[in-house]
Amino acid sequence: MTAVQKVAIAGAGVAGLATAIFLARAGVEVDLYDAQPALSTRGSGITLQGNALRVFDELGVWDEVSAAGKAFEGLNLRAPGPGAPVVAALPDLKTGGPDYPSTMGMSRPDLARILLAAAERHGARVHFGTRVTGVSQTGDGVEVEVDGEPTGTFDLLVGADGLHSAVRELIGIHVSPEQTGMGIWRTFVSLPPEVDRSELYYGGPMYIAGYTPTGDDTMYAFLVEAAQDRSHATPEEARRIMVEQSRAYDGPWNHIRADIEAGADANYTWFTRHLVDAPWNRGRVVIIGDAAHSCPPTIAQGAAQGLEDAAVLSELLVQRDAVDQALWDAFHERRVARAKAIVDASVQLGQWQLDGVRDADMGGLMFGVAQLTAARA
Fold this sequence. Notes:
InterPro entries: FAD-bd, FAD-dep_Monooxygenase_BioMet, FAD/NAD-bd_sf
Organism: Microbacterium testaceum (Aureobacterium testaceum)
Pfam families: FAD_binding_3 (PF01494)
Protein name: 2-polyprenyl-6-methoxyphenol hydroxylase
Distance between the termini: 23 Å
CATH topology of the largest domain: FAD/NAD(P)-binding domain
Keywords: Monooxygenase, Oxidoreductase
Oligomer: single chain
CATH superfamily of the largest domain: FAD/NAD(P)-binding domain
């Protein structure tokens, strides 16, 4: 007997789709609502650490994910300037355990496609072009309004609808993402033959320049700068800016620039952070993933933390027989402090750079995070 029989989920991102898979596979009736008209086919890449890969295996999609992405071990640090020499080759801790690679890169649209197919295969009903606009709770259920119309009563509503979560606002949690002071240019390009793992360049005109393989012939590349208003840049201007800002970086960046000049898209977003203090639920409505916490991608744990939220929440809902305070206490005990540690560490790495701290123990901080995430949530 599960604690829920009928669940609504807002948001078809990683956390929402993972929750849908876990619950639908356990026999729960799942309706997922997403404001996008269809699953996005656009986007750059994503870096996934071992703890995320472990959850994919629990979801039953690891074989598909591993086939679609590019697994690798370790991280190279390169110096800016002529030749871009490798100055350090760092090992990665296998945070998912010995059965998984330490890191994988893949296309975000490919990951979304795999998760959506699995959710639907297990019986979840996914409704695109629909938005949760209202909630009204009773003692043992929550009435959900979609696009201004009542759509039914559910045992639980999961708000996995991202940074600017509508569900978060609907239940009176007025916490919003805050800028951290950095902005990032991203592009999706072909894979240079000499790149077989993530590489980062510290120094030069950017705070960070880097790239991650996402397949046998693709990768995404990025430049991190002081946050600016780039909202008025046309696609052509965006490409020109990214090309010019990357000229201090040699080696594989020459290949990246050629692809951008040939028409690869350049996209810009700001780094943000937020963390909702416990509790993440209000009665029978709970927020997870980017709705509850977000951080800069400096440690590449954003998607992994959303996946862990989904795994822990679903485990409790499937293994227990009531949505009660004991369930919520167990959920928050396992998730809030862990998410806070990831948010704080991710922000700290960026802040050290913004402040020009030369003796910051970045390696020690990242190793501490790796040890934390190696333990199951």
